[in-house]
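Hey, can you fold this one?
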Amino acid sequence: MIPILYRGKSQETDEWLTNSGIIYDDEICTRIGILDSMAGDFEDVRAMTVSQFTGLYDCKGKRIFENDVVRVGGLTGVIMWHPYLTCFCINADGKEPTLNDTYATLGEMWKSYKNELY
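Sure. Predicted structure:
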């Protein structure tokens, strides 16, 4: 089973925080934080740094998250969620996806090049 993990940079320490919970509150002010469900701790993170774990690891065993920059098989791009393909993709052109755009899906590239993905 793949864990559902999120990460974000702490507003206080600028360190990456990773855990299974995320809280978003936009009623009065935007507050986004990583929740440690085991300890019950909540720490505010910078909104632009929040990303989800893809469920895959690079060739060195490091978790691959949304918005990570990866290199594989001569392709360099940013990991993004493609809303029309409903999967994580490697976006090499940096543009927002449209219905007609095709991208290399992260899963396909990982199957073929998992020992070269970093």
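Residues 41 and 95 are 36 Å apart (CA to CA). Let me know if you want another pass with a different chain boundary.
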